């Protein structure tokens, strides 16, 4: 019966596709700029070179034509590229980094320099989109827009339609509004990027430098429905267990006007059709995982809350995963909604999610709000997150005040002040743990760029001992203060007789101590990169650290005194446009907790054709004395360790709508015990009377995925996933045995079919 139901739904969606059609006004998005409207479009042709950042006129002529009307923004690129310049035409999946010739359109729909939407089209119509915010970029966002490319003689073209409904924007009420745009073109085989106007990511005024223009205010009202149905079958369960599961849900996006948007979901579309990267983590710090679920990536720019040290006040992967630090497993989500309103100077947002709390699950209620106001060069904002878990009798509130001050084109100041309040009553579900804690955290940064050659940044952080935003955010650690500095010098031009195209030097340094005044880190690092005219590149790095304390490795059982150390790294990247390319690196670390470590990485990429790619990464690390925490013996232990890794990927695009992807990952570790240790009064290691044991482990993950694009943001997925895990007390299995055992010891195996269609 379930299979028959699935077949009926598949037929239903197919019929919907056959009877539906997309209207693009008078312009047909086919990559050919032959409609008479293009002859009357606004033309931009004064492109300059921004990679390298010389500001010189573009080497190859680039012309952009732009039209705005009630149906959206239409952009046409005409790219001159003579036959003597190799055109790199490669197909990539949606939102992958497009390693090919490409065109970029970035639009700030409000002209406030707070959020810009990035639309990138590869030379064979690969698409990538994302959101640009001051000092950050997120590729998680997906919008509904249209593009096509073509080529003729010494030119290639891209034609793009961006509907007004792709993003919320303010309504001036005056019939006209100001937006800002930035256009870019990449000539991949020569490592060149041209742009109009002269603006670039490395400048603190990048978004302020975009070209401003007035357009007619279009008041658009839309209601989009995204019903989905998914079928999954756990192939590892016993026959007596019900292994088949059907899920049906609905996402919707309502825009009553151009400035307000409501996004909602009932039983949200969280079918796992794209696997996370395989991670084996022995450190005391949590691994950050990017978001892939549609509801949490749609209309998310106002809620993004990145900190320069990669912490985040709102980390949506918390939602549906159970309480942080628990083993409660995944939690279903009943309902989710978020509403945003963009005003002329003030933006508002509210985000709410309710997890399933039936059957004594750890489900909770989540809320996040955002308000930001910009006047002149000053932006002020407030953010709040609140989590309530009834079963744990736990409430967690975090508030944030933030500021961005663009003093002038050379100086920018950013800062945040945060406060957390955690309340928990003791009960049987939280081990009778009572919590009543409040604390603060904050950071400030200063950026100074007197020219395109020189830039300087300083960051200062403070996190109180009791500060905690992990109920709804991501925080690597608390209880510390830090000062970080970075100076960069860019050599933007070399002589005509030089083989070099550009280069840059970076000097970084930092000091960290905990709230008890113990030094956690004192380090400095030098980096040098050379980019050659042949597009190959060479990277060198050298750094050193002083004696310090590690207050996390023992999981609260004392401070370990870490020795001074140094590290050296070299990386080479082959020329860009060849069918076979690679980058390889070798790194040597000496000192610190692990004494000597040698790590080698090799990343090959073979473009069998424009539509077939084989690539990945192979890695090997030899760690002389790997120091980790032994949970079984509750002590530190050192191991002589060999670590192996493989990440292999195969991508095939049978047509512009179809994608076949195979992804295989493997991590293997052989660890032979040297000794177990206790700490003396000075934080030094003293051999323990309790013996830690050798160990080997191997994790494998395979996913084969077929995707058929019915329409933008409407897809059919067929997915096979398989995961294996192996562990032993041997410590000397060897790579071949580890790979075989990790593959054969299957822990997870499933098939998933999913249809999601936009109405």
Task: Walk me through this protein's architecture.
The protein has 759 residues and is mainly beta. The chain has a domain at 27-216: Immunoglobulin-like (Sandwich). The longest helix has 18 residues, at 2-19. 35% of the residues are buried. The model is unreliable at 1-25 (pLDDT under 50).
Keywords:
4 helices; disordered N terminus; 24-stranded antiparallel beta barrel; eight-stranded antiparallel beta sheet; 40 strands; mainly beta; globular; 759 residues; single chain; Immunoglobulin-like
Topology:
Blueprint (H helix, E strand, L loop, with lengths): L1 H18 L16 H4 L2 E3 L3 E4 L10 E8 L2 E9 L21 E7 L7 E7 L4 E7 L2 E3 L7 E7 L2 E8 L13 E12 L4 E5 L14 E6 L5 E13 L9 E14 L2 E7 L27 H4 L35 E10 L3 E10 L9 E11 L2 E12 L4 E13 L4 E14 L10 E14 L5 E10 L16 E12 L8 E15 L4 E14 L4 E9 L2 E3 L9 E3 L2 E9 L6 E12 L5 E13 L2 E19 L4 E18 L5 E22 L5 E3 L7 E17 L2 E15 L6 H10 L1 E11 L3
Antiparallel strand pairs: 1-3, 2-12, 3-4, 4-10, 5-6, 5-11, 6-7, 7-8, 9-10, 11-12, 11-13, 14-15, 14-40, 15-16, 16-17, 17-18, 18-19, 19-20, 20-21, 21-22, 22-23, 23-24, 24-25, 25-26, 26-27, 27-28, 28-31, 29-30, 31-32, 32-33, 33-34, 34-35, 35-36, 36-37, 36-38, 38-39, 39-40
How would you classify the helix and strand content by structural class?
mainly beta
Helix content: under 10%
> What integer value in Å does the Rg equal?
27 Å
Low-confidence stretches: 1-25
* Helical stretch tally: 4
Largest sheet, if any?
24 strands, antiparallel, barrel
Calculate the terminal CA-CA distance, rounded to whole Å.
27 Å
* CATH domain class name of one domain: Mainly Beta
Number of strands: 40
